Amino acid sequence: MATADFTPMFGMGNPNDAFAQYFIGNSYLNPLTNAAECGVGLANVTFEPGCRNNWHIHHADKGGGQILICTDGRGWYQEWGSEPQELTPGTVVVIPAGVKHWHGAARDSWFSHIAFEAPGENCSNEWLEPVDDASYPA
User: Fold this and answer.
1) Most buried in the list 38, 80, 94, 95, measured by CB within 10 Å?
2) Are 51 and 58 in contact (CB under 8 A)?
3) Which InterPro entries has this protein been placed in (predicted)?
């Protein structure tokens, strides 16, 4: 399916070039709010089929973490040491700070979610190794 054939509910946005090094495949970013202006960062992230981000951890001394609100297509979420969880429109995933995880599209589907960066103290992201093909769900 070509990019033109997929229209996410919250818009495709632009190629996610700033974070491309942390993804296998192409992703697109459409910021929905400006955290500097309103204190809350929301962005629609769209993944082409087979695209997923690297394993990563959202760190915080207090609070923090991430919430994913799935809006379009089909994808996957996995925490380190757990089985992958299928993501479909309406799925909400709460990811506490300190949890190693990844998320992205299924091999055969575009996928979009709204990413909410939970407020906290001393928040940062640690990007880790790619999710290899052998570990990626069929």
Assistant:
1) 95
2) no
3) Cupin_2 (IPR013096), HNL-like_cupin (IPR047263), RmlC-like_jellyroll (IPR014710), RmlC_Cupin_sf (IPR011051)
Domains of the chain listed by start with CATH number: 30-122 (2.60.120.10)
HSE, side-chain direction, 13 A CA sphere, residue 64: 15
* Count of other CB atoms within 10 angstroms of residue 20: 12
Say how far apart CA 6 and CA 102 lie, in whole Å. 22
Bridge partners, 79 (sequence order) = 101
What local confidence, expressed as pLDDT, does residue 138 receive? 72
Question: Which residue matches tokens 């190794």?
Answer: 129
Residue 40 zone, left/alpha/beta (φ > 0; ψ -120 to 50; rest): beta
Work out the angle at residue 47's Cα, subtended by the Cα atoms of residues 41 and 53, and round it to the nearest 5 degrees.
75
Q: What is the pLDDT of residues 14-73, one digit of tens each?
A: 999 999 999 999 999 999 999 889 888 899 999 999 999 999 999 999 999 999 999 999
Query: Is the Cβ–Cβ distance between 83 and 49 less than 8 Å?
Result: no
CB neighbours of 116 closer than 8 A, spacing ≥ 6?
40, 41, 42, 66, 67, 68, 69
